[in-house]
Amino acid sequence: xxxxxxxxxTIALTICILIHISFxxxxxxDLTKYSTKGLDLSYTVSDDANESDKxxxxxxxxxxxxxxxxxxxxxxxxxxxxxxxxxGNYFSVNTYGYLGKYQFGxxxxxxxxxxxxxxxxxNPRLQEKAFxxxxxxxxxxxRRDIKNFVGKRINGIIVTESGILAAAHLGGPGSVKxxxxxxxxxxxxxxxxxxxxxxxxRFSGYDTSFIKPNKLAKAI
Length: 220
Hints:
- By secondary structure, this protein is mainly α.
- It is built from 10 helices and 2 strands.
- The protein folds into 2 domains: 2-26; 48-202, Lysozyme.
- The radius of gyration is 34 Å and the shape is elongated.
């Protein structure tokens, strides 16, 4: 009988101790006793989120910056060309007086409706419109040559539409016609020695279907 009573008392004490421990484990921890002061903390956050925000915020091709991830898209084409022309600088003027991100001459600007080069240089959005207009105009002028020569090999390179349009930006559509129709013998070079052939090769294979041929294309 005494043993049974002792066993009951032992069980009761054990239950009380477990309940007490359980309540203690639920107590709120006082975090004020802890501090990160003096610790060398390092956080690594991807830049991808910021880049995505930039692209989502952009509502026109003129808002894109040059990136190696643009690939062979039309935006990739114009940004690669701009990088070669001026390093992508809207306010660049070279030693021959060519202006802006795409290095336009005053006479070319007149043909697409821009009569004030100084204002043009200060206006990035107008420069983007000028590039689109001039490329559309060149594509109309060279439409037959695009049809006849794209896919053919001249001077070791396959002729592509984007190569033709880039070369036309460099030396004008007339120089490109001479190059193609002479099968590479008449190879125009600009003041710095850059040739039609070089641009045909460097800017080949981009998707320029975005540009529609337009004889009367204007920037404004």
